[in-house]
Specification:
The structure is a homohexamer.
Chain A: H1 13-16, H2 18-35, H3 37-48, H4 53-65, H5 72-85, H6 87-103, H7 110-116, H8 118-134, H9 138-152, E1 155-156, E2 161-162, E3 180-181, E4 186-187, E5 192-193, E6 198-199, E7 207-210, E8 215-218, H10 236-247
Helix pairs in contact in A: 2-3, 4-5, 5-6, 6-8, 8-9
Enzyme class (chains A, B, C, D, E, F): transferase
Organism (chains A, B, C, D, E, F): Prunus mume (Japanese apricot)
Pathway (chains A, B, C, D, E, F): Amino-acid biosynthesis; L-cysteine biosynthesis; L-cysteine from L-serine: step 1/2
Chain lengths: ~250, ~250, ~250, ~250, ~250, ~250
């Protein structure tokens, strides 16, 4: 996707919203389905057959997290009802998609993040679990948490509050692969958590937590060059090098 | 569950045993099914439809670990037969449940641990794999080990001997998420292994192994305040802080 | 399997090739199916019903990586067609099997590695994803990568090139459990990556990367005794100790 | 269930409607779940976890009719959306449930008909297929028809219009087991079609079609005693005898 | 299988019993698995991995009759417990297997009948449903009945009593394909019910019911040559001709 | 599809062959996927992702006939290998598709017949079972036959030889729903078998067998007007009436 497609004026909030992202996702999926017949069935069932982002996301999460004792239809219903009753959850998902797309050079498309980023999917499902937790529906929150940990190997305690607009996925990510976030810590907006990290403390906004147990790098109090790097203008290799540079 | 429900006299060993824990688990599941209809089907199929803990655990492990080439009915049979032929395996599961419930503040109920703690489930399945291993049924032990690693992302070599009464789960745990325990090491009773740790050496009783590769903290020779903290009287936040304190 | 069965003259390349390894695998599976009826169905469906190694591997990967939205038959077709069109992929798998069998003392049989080593299976599926990536079939490469990460908890970016003949599995491995390999790094032949490691830099041949982020140990420039240890003559315990020695 | 529970005044249409039937179904399911733990999981997932009859029916049909290429979540969505957009479909289902419960002595409860009567389930799914057909969404109508025929062995062409309030199930039934209804015939209200019948002609209201090809018995023009028999006061045996009497 | 293998002295009841039939089944399955690798996995999972006929039959019925809302493990447990608590059910299955093998020329082996005869499998599952029915566990009996009708397209009301030693399968059969047996009728020992028949009346021993609704042919009061035909000495073609002769 | 699309000169055998039918099927599926997003995933997985008709048919049959003990990948392989080794099987499928499309007014498209006609699918799978039978691979033939009977409720003994170019489906059909074809009878080219029929005798070419047991109508020796009716010029209703006319 040419960078131009992502450009839009900050003032036009409507264009930046869910409708715009959903239109991008469908266009990407249609293009990929056309180019790759072997993937078309998957793209139609997960994206192109749905009338809205919240249905597509609920469907995908329901099918990812289901088991022989927790049926996909039950989970689909739970996600769809929760997303419908609290629009802030979908707004957070859209913010996450946009942040990943704009700042993570490995995120080649919105649909790639929606379908394949374990950190993104784990985070959206976690927010539903967190909402159930604060509604005192704890057994359901814990059952959902258990499935998130099983399927995505990302372990975020339902009591943990996770902000929006973070980076997800494997390369850098709000939440890297095999990350563990414990207890009632708070993960700030735009924070990042390295793969395999175990987070036991709050992570301030735009700060990175890495290691086991995690220590903080970057952020306002621990300045690093990472925040200054515009995702779009950065090639993948140099990003990797820079990241490993400032971590070690 | 009020703390009082967990109180029992040390002298009445019968009350403390499997029957008492199983009665607690059924009562918890009945309460949760009543409060949360969306979870009731799951709770009936995994707990309330079963006549004993060993059937419930065998059913749950069989459904968790099955695949298209290793059927749930075959695994259910394997677990049920092994638990029936060696009562020490179920006694170990009961000890694990009681230890987690009493000492892990994140463990809100026995049924939560039974259904959702990857470390707990991985450990029970591992003990069956270990038994097969020492019976020289190694191909079956290795196939079971492979499924445990796939599903729970916890990798304990079948040759490793794991003691009883440990802490499980995400917060602190005999066995944290994404832990790896290699070769013929010995994990002592009440030991803990941090999330993401790779254990290559014996972990003495009541000692914690953390990091990759794991180093030991706490225990008789490395005293820490963790052992002194009574689980029931400790709130989650402070526990987290204390834990991260003594690790770093 | 007695060591003698693995002995063969270096000059007879035909004997060492795919046909010989496949014959070994079938013989092992037949022996294990005979000894363990509970495992026979699994061994017949994954190995003994197939006419070639590439069919067995395609079947096993298809069934491991399938989901409700990516059917096993579709993935089986994808693997079988890719292995058929590029023989170097199967040659690499054979080299990996032989390296694991000869140098990893925990690898008790070829069939054990083929069926149960997450690192081995993740690596074979990754090579197919990498091939799709360099053919610019990126959406399919990323979807496959996502399934590899979900199922094996091993995260290798499709852009990463992975050499052949490495060590796999849990004990030591080209690719340990919960390993993450990012971006367009290069993993050299015979390299090893520790469990839970996050690799951001190239790993030269016969070098080991461990930790998060990974640092290099061993190799030509960082000599260690590991390379000198003949796998067959080493018992499991001492290997573990040696490994933990040189890491810490 | 005592007959008294079914008594209600004809004038109180509200009581007779969907809400009343749904309340009965939930009460029956709760009673059966209490009495039969082995069935409780099934009853909670199909009935007790749902907030309305249309959700329960959509869930049950979705799970009955799904296949590896037509996912349960997709079908659940299709049924729920269609039932929501056309309330007459659910009203027809309620009329069918009440007719079966009042007139078929083999129908021991509403929930039994809802969960287990192939004729009832096939007819509700058929009405959705028929609606798609008259909306010119024929490929979807035919795909749904194909699944209905596969799963329920009841073959009703999507062009056929089926009235409401018929008898379903095995003993006497609007639609008996293995029935085939072809082309654009019309099945009148309260008509019955015998097991194994092949219907090629219109079946007037309150008329029975039996045989292959089906001939008509009973009805206004072919009076028989069947219509006069009050279902509630009739025991199963005598009904069977009477039925076989008037057929032969 | 040579006819000689089926020969046994009437006096040695032990040899004729379950143990002997089970030994035959295992021998047949081993022979077929050897000859047909593509079928070996199926034969091992359904027969050769089991320690007894009742486990094999419970496993096969559980996997045949399961659905996404009625799990195979639950059904396996139900069948195994019921067969264990009432040995007459397994004795009836053995009698059915022996009758089919001795008198039905299309029944080429015991294992063929056990695995593939819909009539045989429907009848064994029906006897369990019938037992639940007379124990007043009617909701479970009806749910099981519903699955039997869905999967085998054979509809036997749980109230119907079915004798032992009948002929099953497609060619002639106690219970032919798409048969319907209603209400509390009684099917006598050695009776036969033609494919597609709808049985509303008692079928005396060694009598055949055919047609829709079924009429009786053969039996003590309606003598026909069918009973006189020894199954083993009859070739398939002539049997077919004879059967169609006396029906038409 | 306008009739014109089906017109082609009889002399151009190439156009009429597999390639032409496969092109039609893909065009129809593409049109339907475009018009009906809810069906697109199904159409891509079953048709549009495949490179040939034999792969599409093998995939569809494998997914239709699989069970938890007979995996879809195994069946896909069996169908693909058999279709590849004997081109006459695919030629017969093409002839069946063309006959249904040209003569059955209910067959609205080739893809509808390929995906949804139980008679068509049962017949193609039966021909593979029949081939296995005459190759003396009888246990596999019988296992496949059992699955065909379970899934399609169409029971054709593997010994029966079925000709090509027949009519399939529900309205008129070589093989109607719930048909049973026994023993080594021969079903001639262009013959039809009514729904629910039980065929015990040979059915000559272009003859219809109806009833239980089936009697013959039409054909050279029993002339009827059915053969004279050109399928394309006949509307569905009149066809139904005519059919029911000549049957009764």
């Amino acid at each position: 996707m040419p960078a131009g497609e992502l450009r839009h004026t900050e003032s036009s909030s409507e264009v930046e919203g869910e409708a715009w992202v959903w239109a991008q996702i469908k266009a990407e999926a249609r293009r990929d389905a056309e180019a790759e017949p072997a993937l078309a069935s998957y793209l139609y069932s997960t994206i192109l057959s749905h009338s809205s982002l919240k249905r597509s996301l609920s469907f995908h999460l329901g099918n990812k997290l289901c088991s022989s004792t927790l049926l996909s239809t039950l989970l689909y219903d739970l996600f769809l009802n929760t997303f419908s009753s609290d629009p802030s959850l979908l707004a957070a998902a859209v913010a996450d998609l946009r942040a990943a797309r704009e700042r993570d050079p490995a995120c080649v498309s919105f649909s790639h993040c929606l379908l394949n980023y374990k950190g993104f999917l784990a985070c959206q499902a976690h927010r539903v679990a967190h909402k159930l937790w604060i509604q005192s529906r704890r057994p359901l929150a814990l059952a959902l948490h258990s499935r998130i940990a099983d399927v995505f190997a990302v372990d975020i305690h339902p009591a943990a509050a996770v902000g929006t607009g973070g980076l997800f996925g494997h390369a850098s990510a709000l939440i890297g692969a095999s990350a563990t976030i414990l207890g009632n810590v708070k993960i700030g907006d735009g924070a990042k958590i390295g793969a395999g990290s175990v987070v036991l403390i709050d992570v301030p906004p735009r700060t990175t937590a890495v290691g086991n147990p995690a220590r903080l790098v970057g952020g306002k109090e621990r300045p690093s060059q990472l925040e200054d790097v515009p995702g779009e203008s950065m090639d993948h290799t140099s990003f990797m090098s820079e990241w490993s540079d400032y971590i070690i």
